[in-house]
Amino acid sequence: MLQLITSTEIDDAFKNAFLYGVRYHMDSNRDQPNFGLDFPLSQSAVMSTLVQPFLPTYTLARTASLQIKKSSWKNIKKFIKYLDKQHIVKSKDRDGNEVVILDIDFNDEQIENFTPYRLPKKDTPSATSAPNAKPSAPLDAADSSIGQKIKILSVLRPKEKLAPLFEASQADPRGFYTTAELRPILTTYIEAENLISPKNKRLVNINPLLANTLFGSSALDSQALSAGAIPRDALTERLISSCSPFYVILRNDANVSDAKLKAGAPPKIQILLETRSGNKTVTKISGVEPYSIMPQPLADELRKACASSTSVEKLVGSSPKNPVMEVMVQGPQKDAVLKALEKRGVQKAWVEVVDKTKGKKRG
């Protein structure tokens, strides 16, 4: 069960995360103009750079609770306006739909007196800190995804027409199963109905229930139905394909019981290489959000690692309510991107590489 926290606690968490984010940049970029912050700051930049990396999301339950839509402000635009009223920032409406931060009062009392707290990655301050010194943020505080462990759990849910098959083995017809768990359920049904062919133990006789639930009108299905029997492995594959896929992406020590399964196959992170302005290659990365990776810190790392310019923009065609951000880095940077993703717990099998510069797709 998710631990419920109040709206006031959520508000405090977001405000403190913003203060933490500002202090982190002040401590880490003392010699840079505006402490490394490039004004004006868009709403997405505020959220990805100054807020989300500093939220105290120790568990999956707290991660689910600490969402801007569950705060009293309901959205990042109103949150920034609140910070403006507090005289912490100076903001301005842009295009009627967005508000940007033009400046931050780095001398504001709330920022100066803010004491960083423990983040999910590591504790602050270090044991060698001076007795009266204020703790500084950890070096990787701006990107809590570095070093994370990711696990993808894929399961299958039987469709309603398969209920009689599952009831034969007293299995829940609306439960979730791995492919390995489906095999003994099918075996139990086959044995209960005495469907093993006496002539060949590897063949299963097709009864009316199997015919109606696991077979269609394709040529191969018609051939199997005409023969009246099918190899057990082929029947198992038909059972698997007749179930609906679900998945969950688990981070670190998150418990699957606290997570919400999503319909479909697990999404892949896409790396797209394409040519612009004649012969200039750019590398685009999208779909990192489901893996708890913040686009802006990823772009910042790639800018340094590749010695190239980067940008973060909303992916064209993505939902306005749940926008997908796209990181772009100049040059053919596939290997650097894969290395950065690997640091964040992403396996190569979860990444799709599309190379349009060569006119072919590679995985």
What order do the helices and strands come in, and which of them pair?
Layout lengths: L6 H22 L14 H9 L8 H6 L10 H10 L3 E6 L3 E7 L4 H4 L37 E9 L4 H5 L11 H14 L10 E3 L2 H7 L4 H9 L1 E3 H10 L1 E9 L10 E2 L5 E8 L3 E7 L8 H12 L3 E5 L10 E6 L3 H10 L7 E5 L4 E3 L1
Parallel strand pairs: 8-12
Antiparallel strand pairs: 1-2, 3-6, 4-5, 6-7, 8-9, 9-11, 10-11, 12-13
What would your notes on this structure say?
The protein folds into three domains: 7-112, no CATH class; 154-245, SWIB/MDM2 domain (MDM2), CATH 1.10.245; 269-362, SUI1-like domain (Translation Initiation Factor Eif1), CATH 3.30.780.10. It has 363 residues and is an alpha+beta fold. The model is unreliable at 122-141 (pLDDT under 50). The protein is built from twelve helices and 13 strands. Helices cover 33% and strands 20% of the residues. Helix 1 crosses helix 2. The two termini are 38 Å apart. The strands form four sheets. The chain has a six-stranded mixed β-sheet, with helices on one face. A three-stranded antiparallel β-sheet has the order 3-6-7. The protein is elongated, with a radius of gyration of 26 Å.
